[in-house]
Design a protein that fits this description.
cleavage on pair of basic residues; 6 helices; seven-stranded mixed β-sheet; alpha/beta; 273 residues; endoplasmic reticulum; 7 strands; transmembrane
Length: 273
């Protein structure tokens, strides 16, 4: 399972300009070329499924194929760039998909690309263990350049080109560190415009049905842990029941015989009395 998974996601404000792109991926992870939109909040599920993990909700997105189930990636690298719709990436080697609902996307704190790749280059044993890895980076410098000089300025265009080259080099470095089995993720977001909404309810509010559109009295959907817990309880109950039945049957039909300690002690006590 010596594989690295790095996905490249390109996000922008709005719905039509957003992209989820794949820069580098191993042969065991298959991304189909097409124009299938994917919700922004399902990108972590794509990373989890590509690494062989299960998700709570099924992902009905045709962009990710099954691939090799016995050779899964060991790490996910996710990079977010704020302040731009998309970067000018090299054509031909990148697969892009439309992205929806980017306001729900959340990525972790700011890191430095060069420091990550150089640190792993010095400590290559960190990339050779048997546990999957996740790297999450956030780059907000391009957004500050756009605010200071303007997005139509020469400084912003040069910074965008430099960042695109640096990210491509970072993807290649991470890909090579994990033995050529890597996928790199990049998310570009212009702004997070999620409005704060406070949901309230009263104690007099009537309980609503979970599925009011269905006229049938259907049971609620079980989560992924239900089959595991059910099988554990079910088979433990069967094992205990069989143990009680077998023990009771053996005790009921037990014949100590004349040579047993039970018979000798009982017979001797009777004679003494």
């Amino acid at each position: 399972m010596a594989a690295l998974m790095v996905l490249l996601s390109l996000l922008a404000a709005g719905v039509l300009g957003n992209e989820f792109s794949i820069l580098r991926s191993p042969g065991s992870v298959v991304f189909r070329d097409g124009n299938w939109p994917i919700p922004g909040e399902r990108i972590p599920d794509v990373a989890a499924l590509s690494m062989g993990f299960s998700v709570k909700e099924d992902l009905s997105w045709p962009g990710l194929a099954v691939g090799n189930l016995f050779h899964r990636p060991r790490a996910t690298v996710m990079v977010m760039v704020k302040g731009i719709d998309k970067l000018a990436l090299p054509p031909g080697s990148v697969i892009s998909y439309p992205l929806e609902n980017v306001d729900l996307l959340f990525l972790s704190e700011l890191q430095v690309l060069h420091d990550i790749s150089s640190l792993l280059s010095r400590h290559k044993h960190l990339a050779k263990d048997h546990s999957p890895d996740l790297y999450s980076l956030e780059l907000a410098g391009l957004d500050e350049i756009g605010k200071h000089y303007g997005e139509d300025s020469e400084q912003f265009r040069d910074a965008s080109k430099i960042l695109a080259d640096a990210l491509q080099k970072f993807a290649d470095d991470m890909y090579n560190l994990y033995g050529g089995n890597a996928v790199v993720e990049l998310v570009t977001v212009r702004s997070f415009d999620t409005s704060l909404v406070r949901k309230t309810r009263t104690i007099l509010e009537a309980k609503q049905a979970k599925n009011p559109s269905s006229p049938y009295n259907l049971a609620y959907k079980y989560n992924l842990e239900y089959p595991v817990v059910f099988n554990m309880v079910f088979w433990i109950m069967i094992a205990l029941a069989l143990a009680v039945i077998i023990t009771s049957y053996n005790i009921w039909n037990m014949d100590p015989g004349y040579d047993s300690i039970i018979y000798r002690m009982t017979n001797q006590k009777i004679r003494m009395d």
